[in-house]
Amino acid sequence: MPRARWSAFGAHRRARVITFPELHLADRLGELPYRLFSKSQAGISTWTVTAAQRARVQIVWPRSYQWVHAAGFTSSIKRSFEQIGVSRMGTVPQLHRGVVSVQCAVNGRAHVLAIDYSDRPDFINRDALEESSLYVKLQYCERGYDDSRIIAGGYPVAQLGYYRYYRAFRDQHGRRPTIDVLGRFGLEFQRELRTKAVGVLSSASDIRYVGAGPRVRYSRFLREAASARLGLDLPGNGPFTYRVAEFLGLGTCLVAPRYSTALYARLEPGVHYVPIADDLSDLLSVCRYYLAHEEERATIARAGRDFFDRYLHSDHLAAYYLRALLDRVDYEDSGIQLPEGASLDKNDALGVLDRDARHG
After folding, report:
1. pTM
2. pLDDT at position 165, please?
3. Which residues of 266-297 are buried (b: 16+ CB within 10 A; e: fewer)?
């Protein structure tokens, strides 16, 4: 590994420069106590799954995936299904691009739950939709779709390990922020936009920015996020990135261009996150404003943290998918036809989403 140089306060401030291998080792050692922790469960029961509902359904989660990296970001949802007590691992054919197909039995009859992780909001895998009772779209287009089986799926964190760290880091580091703005980005996608953001923030001598330099371990990234006053999210291959849920859950005030995609509960600009211009023309002025106005920043950070605790924790995602699947099957069995263009999460009669959840 090259002996890259890294500074805890970004490229333009080097109070103490250490080598990257030393930092990597320190991070590994710092992770050891948290490896004893199990996944932190949601402290709020937004979606109650009753014993009677659990008895109606069994889920077989696939052992392998059509795209191997899907195992990472779906692992927390898989674990939450297991904790509900309705899921086991098994061999499930994964035939559809951009989709995890999950076999389900509801009331003794076979169904398929499709989880579409494609980064294209306009993409629906029609073959997967054809065989599915419920089609969960993570990058859900705000204008919706032409099939009532397609619902907004929320958005997960990058990996199950997040749930070992986030509560402790939120408590330990959130009260003592040491970073003004955190913005770590890969350059595989949106290179020009992301490079521009790093350059703008690195050149601001009055802002303690972290993000320039080599990639760091996931645990260090989460520590940094919990220690940051502002966390910058920029679009990657799709509008949503893992930073949405990760920053919100850590209690970091999220700064991002307005999202063109929707979660299953409304994420409101100016309430749950700070919106900026798509071309980043106001990035510095917005950051400086919220760094100078601590109370306003803290209010948005708290609202974002509460949003995660109510809606984006993987326990909520799994319970929401399960409730939506049961409601969909009940409607299919009843013979009632939804109006053309209606979807599960927009129909009051289904009871999957209460009015508070839809409107935040």
Report:
1. 0.86
2. 93
3. ebeeeebbbbbeeebeebbebbeebbeeeeeb
